[in-house]
Structure formats: structure tokens, C-alpha cells
Write the C-alpha cells for this entry.
Amino acid sequence: MPQLGQGILKGMSITLRNLFKNKITRQYPEYKRDLPDRTRGMLTVDMDRCIACLQCMRVCPDHCISIEQTKRDADGSGKPKPYAVGFVIDDSRCMYCSLCVEVCPVNCIYHTEEFEAQAYNRLELARQFGERPVDPTIDPRPPVKKKPKKAAAKGKADEKADGDAPKKAPAKAAGKSSEGDAA
Amino acid sequence: MLSEERRNETVALDGTASERLARPDIRSEFGLETMDMNMGPQHPAMHGLLRLILELDGETVMRCDPVMGYLHRSQEKIAENRMYPAVVPMTDRLDYFANIHNEHGYVLAVEDLLDAELPPRAEYIRVLMSELMRLASHIPSIGFLMLELGAFTPILYAFRERERIQNFLEAITGARMMFHYFRIGGVKADLPPGILEEISEYLDGLEGRFQTDTVDLVTGSEIYVARTKGVGRMTPEQALDIGVTGPPLRGTGVDFDIRRDYPYSVYNELDFNVVTDDAGDVAASYRVRIGEVWQSIRIIRQVIEKMPEGPVMADLGRRLRPKEGDGFGRVESPRGEYAVHVVSDGSDSAYRVHYRDPSFCSMQLLQEVVPGHYLPDIMPIMGMIDPVSGGWDK
Amino acid sequence: MEFLNFLNQEPWRFILSFGVVLFLTLNLAAILVMGERKVAGYIQLRYGPNRVGPRGLLQPLADIIKLFTKENISPGKADLWIFLGAPIAMFIPVAAVWLVIPFAPGAVVADLNVAILFFVAVTSVGALGVIMAGYGSRSNFSLLGALRGAAQMISYEVPLILSLLGVVMLTGSLSLVDVVNAQGGGFWNWYFIVQFPMFIVFYISSLAETKRVPFDLPEGESEIVGGYMIEYSGMTWALIQAAEFAGMGLMAGITTTLFLGGWQPPLPFLDFGQFNWIWFGIKTALIMFTFQWIRWSLPRLRMDQLMDLGWKVLVPLTLVWLVITAGAMLVF
């Protein structure tokens, strides 16, 4: 009873002090914060540098990049090279994980500081970069066909515990398919 | 309606409960009935999407059945169909309030599979990030507890700190929430220049602000004490049986912390205490969280001091294809033990990935602990577990 | 202006002033909502509403337009008459009590000689509106909120009334005009000094009567999500909110009148004559600010703790202090 109310009064004095402190709200559309250098905003592509290696398309976990590839002699060397005539990034699927940026060998796909993407329709969020539009709704990479599971995989834990059971050679089947080099 | 046996069983869980319920003879004489009530899935205090089926006798809860699965995204199946590195950004979506710890658990599991040796700077950066994330999770979780008790202001003071910590995380990783910073074999990039000084400067200010705006504002308040003391009390045995980890477990007096007992990264080189409390109620878990905030600040200071130079990424080759076997990684996330089990069949993607999420496991205590409490006591008990929807539903 | 003199005759004076009071009450609610949001914002290191008009001052207007144009939804199984009657049953008592409060010397709509009794009787009708709202909307959450509201409002009537009695004993009158006149001559004559424990009890009880934090269990937005008003939308909801906020203003006004000297200036030389309503306004605004300050600082109590506080602390305290007051009046 003697101390009743002390804690409440202490808390209330703290809120009263904060009433007069400087406000920490930033009025967003008028005030825009400086974004750090590493900000991962919306992706953009420098099509002049793109060599259509399709690595970004393969590594993308959300399948948001679709590329239409042809052979074309773009630099006049007389030898046709892969060329991306269509390149679409579907921002409604992109999760800004930056895997495509890391995998790109010529640094042609990179993050901007742009982050204000809005549209009335999901398809409007698909941004086209190439000469020819690509349909963003088509899954650029069909679902990976899992190789048949080894029957041994089930009893693996037991094998490991025993130690003397022969180790199965790691399956190499997936190596042939072109599903991505991510490091 | 509960059967009579179940009702007696429910009442027996908490001795005080029997005083709060009408006696059986009164019940039958006046034909008293219980009321079924659905809380959630869209309910402001349900930490996301949780449905509680409650049976109420007046204000007293007699039965509490959590129904989960409203945010299920089949993360474990997705992890089986992706290559190892592409799973890391998906783990950010699990416990979206402490993403770094999810990444850490998964990355540790795959590194266990690969027997990777990490450069020391990468390990220190990981600990730095983990502890920053723990601050950014613990401080708002105290605010959430107060929000559920009806005080709206502490959560905004807490989010002020979280936003500032997120500014550092953004400067380091490039994103405010879905970081994707830990990679198998290290971290994505070295720290930006000057960030360590900024963090250490920030921590000086944080100590004062946390002391006044959270600890002083909340701890002494008589209403807060009345609402949390003795609420949601568990015995250590009960907590261990249910599988509770993290602050609620340490609040019951069980001295268990993965960082000390099963050290990962460089936690064994750092000096910190495991905070415990004996009461085992909501107030105890709150005190444990407060203590852990101070310990985290202490750890970050040591990390900044000891930060070695060197590379931040081990060379594991371009394509990750671990040998057959299984890997296991466990970390102490702000909510408890977060563990990942990865089974490899030697291919590019895992054969099976399992996440042990602390939110999911601690949630089981609702069924055990809530019956016998008043309806408003559910909220502080939820605040004690501090579950995250993305975590329990995966 | 001679031709307007008939306005000073009954019943015209009464009708006109009642219209003014009703208008003020509705406006007071709108302004208080605005004030509440601003105070909340500033305490929480935000700005509060600041987009509509200069510094957001036109926000109440925007709110009203929004609420008027919003569809009024009622649950399919609601008891419609009770459901729609509840907001009115909550608002009318609140507006009616303003009739007996003296704003300035001679400025009172009805100088009842039983004004305090009138206040006590009419405010207790407010609980009826809460029960109607909770019962009429046929929702478990509403029902729980209404039961809590009824229990709380009826329990806290007791300390509220008991704490008034000290003032009544000192004044020897039930008229609020007499109460204010008895407190003239400077702030040391105000009753909150000699009746300090009663002032605290009255303040706490009025927080409970207006269902403000830490006694906002009938709303309890973290467990029963708005309680008895959960199913209301549009104008019916706005009327409930108006009743709540006007009730808060009313309680502040009554506290001012009973314990803080009403329109009496704090020091004798600050007497502005007819303009003494300024003092009434300032004191009422201060009390309302403390209501809001508490609202944004404290968590809420639990039902059993609320009842404990009411019956085991406040009621005995008032009884003891009544005896002390009576003894002191005998001695001095």
C-alpha cells in the first residue's frame, strides 16, 4: 500500500516527457531517406551487355525472369552468338533475393534503388527489356524433374550409424540437366 | 461442451481454477452452460493467423485448442525442390521477425553436410548479425506483451529501436527484412566501412533509451505486475515435457541455452551469461528477455572488439553437391531452439529438410497452461511465447 | 436587440440552450477524437493526423464525412430494434447531463436543486445502452463486452456516488450552482484540497464509468476486439464513439465543477465576470488531457482486479473519509 501508484506515476512521467520530445516520424512522400549502397531494389538489365547465358533465369527461385534467346551476329564478327531478343522481369514474383545478380557473369542485371512498384494489374508489374515482349505468365523453367529417389535414402540414417554399410555413390543424374550454377 | 471427466481434469491443472468455476451442484441446479468462442484467425492479438477454440465458463477458460495452418506455405517441400543456395532466401520467410536465425540454422545444417571450414571473420559477422537480430526481436516482443495487456505506447518505442537496428541490417545486407545475407560457406559480403563504429555508437544510446522507455515504463507499473505475476505459470518439468525452449523455458529456471550448451559459430569465444528466472510465469519470461537484451549488447560489443580481418566466404566450389548423409544445425533464436535437419541424397537439392520451429513447439503450452485462466490472460500467455505465424505454419 | 428578449423567457430559453448544448456535445466528441489522436501521436513520438487541413485540424470533418457515407451493416441475426436503439440510449444520457452544469456565472441551462442526483440518475442509464448493444448484436464477443461493461459500470457507481457525498456534506446542497459558488475566492477554497482522497476516488471511478484505460475492459481490444461495439459500423458506430467521448468530456466537466471550482478563477483578481467560462474550459481540458495521457501510458486491468479495486479499496476509502469529513464538520 505505501508504494502503490509509484510505478504508474513513473511510467506516466516517461510518457509525458516523450510528449515534448522531437518526433521521429519521417513524412514519407516528402521525405525520402538515403538508401544504402547495397539496397536491393527493383532489378534492371543492361541489354547491351547481356550475353544471353540464361544463368539468371535458371537460378531464379521464383522463376520471375524469362528470356527469349536466338542466335544473332550482334557485334559484326561474322559468328552468330546467343542473343536475348526478349527479356522480362516479373516484379510481382520477384523476391529481391539477389541470386541472379550474383550469378551474372557480365554484371548486366543489377538492383536499382527503385522500390515503389505499384499497379492495378499484376501483369503490369512485368517489365520488358528486350526488343520483343515475352509473356511473363509462362513459367520459364518447367518444374525440375526429381530423379527417382534411391531406396537407400530411406535407410540412410541407419547406415550412418552403423558405419560399415557401403556408401552409395552420389547420384550424378542431375548433373546432365542444365539447372543452374549457383554459388 | 466438455464431458465431466475432462472438465475435472482441466480444473485439476491449476489449483486456483477450481475457485473460479461454479460448483457442479450450482451448475446443475441453475442449468449453467459454457460458451464456445472462436478467437481468430483474424484477431488482433493472435500474432498472425491463429485460431483458438475456447470454451468459456463466464470469463474463465476451460478449454483452449489452437488451430494452426492458415499460413502454411509448404516451405519444407519447397526446400526439397530447390538447389541448396536457393533455399536460403526462402528460410527468411519462416520466422519473419528473426530472419537471420532461420538462415543461420539452415546454413549451419548444410555446412555440417559439406564439412565446410569457415573463415573467422565470417563467423564473427554471423554472430554480430544474430545478436543485432535478437535485439530487434526481443525489444518489440516486450512491446507486444504490453500491447496485449492494453498499453499501446511501448510497442512504438520498441519499434523505434527495431527500425534503427534494421537500418544497420539494411546497410549490411541490402534489405530491411528478407536479408538473404548468410550463404553456405560464409556471408554474402564484407561489412561496409565504418558500420562497426556506427553500431557501437548506437548501442551507447540504446542502453539509455531501453532503460527508460521500456524497462522503467513497464517493470514498475503496478497494473503490469498485477496482470503478469503468476499468469501462465509452468513447472520446469511441464515446460520440458511440452518442448518449450527459449525465454519461457529459461523463465521456469531451466538453465539451457544453445549458444552456451551447444556452441555454434564463435559463441564459445565470447563471454556472456545465460539469464534465468525461477517464477515460470509471464513476468519471468519478460525479465529473461530484458536480461537477454543486456547480454546481447554485451556480446555485440565483444564482437566489435574482436572482429578479425580476412575473407568472409569459404571456397566451396561453384556447384554445391554434398555427399549423401544428413546435416544438422541448431541455433538459439529469440523464440527458442531453431533447428534444421537436412538429408542429402547427393544431388543438387536436398532429399528432405525439416525445420524445428520454436513458435510451433512452444505453442503446445496453450492447451496445457491456458485452461483455468481468465480470458484476458490468454493474451499475456501468447506474449510470453511470442510466436510468429510464419514460424509455426512454415 | 430588445426584440430578442423573448428568447430569455421559458420555454424558449430552455429549448434554445438545449440545442446549443447538444450541438456542443456533438462537436466536443469530434474535437476530443482529434485531441485523442494528437495526444496519442505526440506521446508515441509521432505526429498524429496531419494531412487534412493545416496541421490536420480538419481531420474530424473528414472522419464525419467518411462515417456518413459508410454503409451501416447490422448482423443478420441481430435484434434490430435493440441493436439500433443502443447508440441512442448511450448518447442521450450523456447529452442530458450537460444541462445542469454551470459554465459561467448564471450560464446554466437548468438550475435544478437536485442537480447531483440528476447527474447520478442519468449517467447510470448509460449502462443500459451497453447491455442493449451487446445483447442486440448477437455475438459472443459483444455479449462478453456488454456483461463486463454492465458489471463495471454498476459497481463503480457506488464509489462514484459515495465520493460525491463529501462535497454535498460540505456544501449542504445538491445544486451544482451552489457547489460552485461555495468554492469561490481562490484555488485554496476548491474542494479537491479538503476532499483529496474523494477527488482521487471520483477521478478513478469516472475513468471506469467512461470505460477508459485502465478500465476499458468492455472494449478490451486485445481480447474481445471492441466488445459491445464490435458489430457496429458507419453512423451507429460513430454515435457510440461520440457518446464515449462526450461522456469523457462530461466526466471531466463534473470533476471540474465538483472539485476544481467550476468556473471559479484560481486567484480572485483573475475574475473575468461573464467570461469565466474560460476557466471552466481550461480546467475541463486539463482533466481530459490527463484522461488521454493515462490512456496512452497504462495497460488495462483484469475483471477480477477491477472488482477488487472498486469494492475492496475505493468503497472502504470513501466510507472512512465520509466519517472523517463528518467528524471534521462537527469539530470546526
User: Anything to note?
Assistant: The CA atoms of residues 105 and 171 of chain A lie 28 Å apart. Chain A touches chain B through 49 residues (CB under 8 Å). The longest strand of chain A covers residues 81-90.
